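Revision sheet: structure tokens.
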Amino acid sequence: MKKTICMVAMVALSGCGSTTGPEVDLEGAFVTTPIEVTLQYGEDRVVAGTVLRMSFAAVLGDSRCPSDVVCVWEGNAEVEIGIGAGMGPTSALQLNTALAPRSVEWNEVLVTLLEVTPYPVSDVPIADAAYSVKLRLEPVS
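Predicted:
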């Protein structure tokens, strides 16, 4: 039974010879060209044209300067992104908007945090469910 499940997963991950989207190489890079991905808080999905699974797991902190306030420093938003391949384990990546790291290399894929929305406004709390992140995935050269 376990062998059958593994074989089904391998066929599903191979794309059955599909030529849509970027080419996928299970032995090396998972993306061949840069891809931008937007995830809503709590969303967990496969990135189109790849075997990558990504999730927006948590907002670890948001100290960005509200748009209606003048601040000495822009502040920082820190988020946790989950990434994995196929049915494999998920790795947690912590990314920041203003502090390091903004980018993390994972299995020959460079994951860069481009944006966290919404942008804060003073005296208006942001519920976790309202957040989204925009990421860029690109092959490590």
